[in-house]
Every structure is written in structure tokens, then in C-alpha cells.
Amino acid sequence: MPTYKVIYFDSKGRGETIRLALTVAGQDFEDVRYVKEEWEKVKPTFPQKQLPCLQVDGRYIPQSGAIMRYVGRAFGLYGANNDESTGIDVILGATDDFVKHVITATYEKDDAKKAELKKDIEQSKVVQYMDILEEILKENNGGDGFFVGDKISVADILVFDMLDQVTAMITLPAFPPKLGALIDRVKTYPKIKEYLAKRK
Ligand SMILES: N[C@@H](CCC(=O)N[C@@H](CS)C(=O)NCC(=O)O)C(=O)O
Fold first, then answer.
1. pTM for the full model?
2. Mean pLDDT, each 10-residue run in order, the chain (200 residues)
């Protein structure tokens, strides 16, 4: 059995979906969290000099998207066939598009511009994103299960975690009904519920 280390900073950021995915998989992992000074010392030894990294036995895997897919494939959280995996990829892509807007607004230095970007996200971008998700859900078993197939996947985990994290930056509108129910389903998924109850 390989041993797993999720290496990131002491925050949710790009590391949390990976922690959640391994938790759902029921796979133990070491949760390594660097503080900035420690990170600067070890940074040159890491591939791509960035975090997160997943260490599987001795091997380092960089890039959060690649790590998530790796974990998904390794533990049956990445669809049962090509169509389902592609459905998951579509959601990961739509989520990437949305997150880019949030990151741009977060790092905008000009206050007036930042407020404008934030307003556009809250009034338009997030609504478009949620509508995309709602439609995808409705097309799968009437929207009463998970995004793809008949079990939880990295798409459900990522969407839940990302919508949770963006509330630090933007005010979310009410969720459309199927998406709201999906978020509750993920939040109360037994392994996730247990993890969230212990999370700092
Ligand atoms: N595309 C990469 C981006 C990774 C990234 O930007 N990592 C940041 C933290 S979220 C980082 O390592 N910052 C510290 C540094 O560059 O020294 C991914 O998705 O993993």
C-alpha cells in the first residue's frame, strides 16, 4: 500500500480539495502544512517550486488539477467510463473558468476596479456558473444524485469546496434548487461530515 502526503500551506486554497478527495476515498494521508519561512527553505527541492504537491511513496506529483485527477482515478472518484470522466472534466473546466474571475478580482490592486470585478462576479459570473451546474445536474437522474453517474466524484467535491472557499471573497446568491441539494448531499456525505466537524 503506498503512503500519501498532501503537502501545502496551512490553509484550504488549492490543497483542500485534495485532502477532501483522499478523505472520501478513505485513504490515510499525512497532512503536511508549511509556514512561509519553512516553505522558502524547501521550495528549491520541489518540482515546479509550487504547492500543492502529492507525495506518493517517494514520488512527488505537482499541479492541483493533475493531483485531483490522479486521486480520482486511483480511488474510483473519476467516473466509471470515458463519458463519465469527460462529464467530470467539463465541470472541472467550468469551475476553472469561474475561479479565474475570482482570482483576478482577489489580486486586483485598484479598489474601484476590484469592486467592479466583484460586482460582475456576484451579479453575473456566479449566476452563469451555477446555471451551468444546475443544467448538468438535471441531466443526470433528474438532479437528485451527484453530477455524474450514481456516486460522488471529484467534481462534486471540487464544486462543494470551491463554493465554500469563494464566500471569503464574494457573496453568493441563493443556489438553484438541485445545486443547493447537491451541496448539502456533499456536506453531509459521512466521511466529509466527519472531516468538516474536525476541521480547524
Ligand atoms: N497551477 C498550480 C498553481 C500552484 C500555485 O500557484 N501555488 C501557489 C499557492 S496556491 C504557491 O505554491 N505559492 C508559493 C510560491 O510560489 O512560492 C496548481 O494548480 O497547483
1. 0.97
2. 96 98 98 98 97 97 98 98 98 97 97 98 98 98 96 98 96 97 98 95
CATH number of 82-189: 1.20.1050.10
CB-ligand 1 contact for 100 (6 Å cutoff): no
Q: Which amino acid is at 189?
A: Y
Question: What does the DSSP 8-state code read for residue 196?
Answer: H
Residue with cell 486554497: 13
Give first-to-last CA distance, the chain, whole Å: 29
CATH architecture of the region 4-74: 3-Layer(aba) Sandwich (3.40)
Nearest atom of ligand 1 to the alpha carbon of 65: 19
Q: Ligand 1, atom 3: nearest CA belongs to which residue?
A: 63
Spatial contact of 88 and 75, defined as CB atoms under 8 Å apart: no
Amino acid, res. 7: I
User: What 3-state DSSP class applies to 176?
Assistant: coil
Give the integer Cα–Cα distance in Å for 119 and 157. Answer: 26
